[in-house]
Write a structure and sequence with these properties.
The protein is α+β, with helices and mostly antiparallel strands. It folds into 3 domains: 9-41; 44-79; 125-211, Sandwich (Immunoglobulin-like). The chain contains 3 helices and 12 strands, in the order βββαααβββββββββ. A 5-stranded antiparallel beta sheet has the order 5-4-7-10-9, with no helix packed on it. The protein has a 4-stranded mixed beta sheet with strand order 6-12-11-8, with no helix packed on it. Strands 1-2-3 form a 3-stranded antiparallel beta sheet, with no helix packed on it. The longest helix has 36 residues, at 44-79.
Length: 213
């Protein structure tokens, strides 16, 4: 066998080392084609790694360029000052000397409570009076009339007082048509009843006793 792999009528495949007849055009084991002078052609399998290597190298080159450009842009954005950091300026409060020399303004006007003028005043007192004296227990004869007056404080309360009798068969109370603060109790039968005066949610009660004549 010669150094080139040719031994008379045989050749040696440089791919797989198979010795086969020189009359054959390719290796029967691996299929490598034989050229002139018993040389073998380069198989397609030998070209594939080279092509893949070129493709991988080109991809890595492009990817590296893109990454470098991205990181360069990100670094520039981080180092760039934000508008809010420079736009905010603290107010000028002046010097300590200016604040110390200022004289506080003191008003001589008394403090006025914040009240709603539309709200009605609160009722302080409700009484039934006879001859301008408060009464809680009154007695009178059948067939008599007793004049009573409502005392409301404050006097400018907007609501009118309401007069009632717990037993109108004994005595009824009739408000004055011209002045609701006045009323007349009519004693009609022997017995006891309660005359009530209500205003602003407050009720004053007076016992009224009716006797025989």
């Amino acid at each position: 066998m010669s150094a080139n792999g040719n031994n008379g009528g045989s050749v040696k495949c440089p791919e797989c080392g198979k010795i086969y007849s020189a009359n054959m055009q390719s290796c029967p084991r691996c299929g490598a084609a034989r050229l002139r002078g018993n040389r073998h052609a380069v198989r397609d399998s030998q070209r594939v790694p080279v092509i893949m290597g070129v493709i991988v190298f080109a991809f890595l080159t492009v990817a590296t360029g893109v990454l470098l450009k991205y990181y360069s842009s990100a670094a520039s954005a981080i180092n760039k000052p934000t508008p809010s950091a420079t736009a905010i300026k603290p107010p000028d409060m002046g010097t300590n000397d200016t604040l110390e020399n200022e004289t506080p303004v003191v008003s001589d006007s008394p403090l006025i409570p914040d009240t709603d003028p539309t709200l009605p005043p609160m009722i302080d007192k409700v009484e039934i009076r006879i001859n301008n004296k408060p009464k809680e227990d009154v007695a009178n004869n059948v067939g008599t009339k007793t004049e009573v007056t409502a005392y409301i404080r404050p006097q400018d309360f907007p609501d009118d007082p309401v007069w009632t009798s717990s037993d109108e068969s004994v005595a009824s109370v009739v408000p004055d048509a011209n002045d609701p603060y006045k009323a007349t109790i009519h004693a009609t039968a022997v017995g006891n009843t309660t005359i009530s005066l209500t205003c602003g949610g407050i009720t004053y009660k007076m016992i009224f006793r009716v006797r025989k004549k």
